[in-house]
Design goal:
CATH topology of the largest domain: Spore Coat Polysaccharide Biosynthesis Protein SpsA, Chain A
Number of helices: 6
Distance between the termini: 44 Å
CATH architecture of the largest domain: Alpha-Beta Complex
CATH class of the largest domain: Alpha Beta
Radius of gyration: 21 Å
Number of strands: 28
Largest sheet: 9 strands, parallel
Helix content: 10-25%
Structural class: alpha/beta
Shape: elongated
Bound molecules: guanosine-5'-triphosphate
Length: 335
Amino acid sequence: MQAVIVAGGLGTRLRPLTFNRPKALVPLLNRPQILHILDRLPKSVDEVFVAVNYLYERVRDALHDAPLGRTVEVVEEPNPLGTAGAVKRLGDRLEGTFAVYNGDVIDSLSFSDFLAFHRKRRALATVALHEVEDPSPFGVVGMDGTRITRFVEKPAAQEAPSHLVNAGRYLFEPEVLDEIPADVPVSMEREVFPKLATKGLHGYPFTGYWSDAGTLSGYLASMSILLANGGAGVGPRAKVGRAKVDGAVLIPDDCVASGRIGPNVVMGPRCRVDDGTVSNSTMLEGAAIEAGGVVRGSVIGEDSTVGPGAVVEDSIVGDGARVGSGRRVIRERMA
Ligand code: GTP
């Protein structure tokens, strides 16, 4: 069976991390996030196309050498065609029922249950759905039994037809491709699903975990989920003897830490915390927190430094940056 992973977006909501790397390669638990998605596809999905526009070569090169255990072809999209246009462009190469996955979502969806549901309903298309407390940042569905009757993208909270949101995982019959115009940007969520809602679009709600890692809060939620599901650990040669380590953390061998680490902290290779405090955050490779520095709810970019006594909260610090001594980088929370 074949799958298309749409991984070509600009990832503006993860800037500045995505100024110089595609979102698919933003490290999540020290691995490009697209690898977590490939991991969860069963072996029966033996051919995967990864559709990329932005920074295509980076994705191609990163996946070229990865041991993936199946055929994975990174396909260049010369200009961004949107989430549906990217799939249409591969139409000639797709046969039979195929899967489409967003490249920025972490989940525990069972592919085999999803496929069994799709086949049993003889659906034209099936969208995996997940229940969330606040559906307003997502695509929200209205249902009649298992049929999706409405598809509303990012509704105002009081106008959401339910709390079931598009999980970014689809199973399609080839006829879906007939609903997508060729060679122009087309959005699956805004243009194709509303059309399919009258023709056999089913929804498959699943429980377990799901998180959209394309925003800072979603990225950190994805990090916590993966830490809680077997991703935590402290390398035997990590120098953490002088640190108070609390809750789920991932600290590789060549890190040195003192101060307070955790809960929910991922350190990349060669990270250093010198009597600092870090919680609910990821430090990418080579990042450092110097004496008394505090990092909460944030991502610290590669080889960046949080200086002595500086505070970083709810923020993304880009690669190679230095937050000066005593500075405060605190993003205002949205109301
Ligand atoms: P933002 O700029 O932060 O909204 O991110 P994004 O551009 O990645 O958009 P969004 O999160 O809505 O995209 C959902 C999924 O579709 C992600 O995996 C994107 O990489 C992918 N995607 C979005 N637009 C395109 C596109 O034009 N082409 C391809 N191939 N993939 C896309």
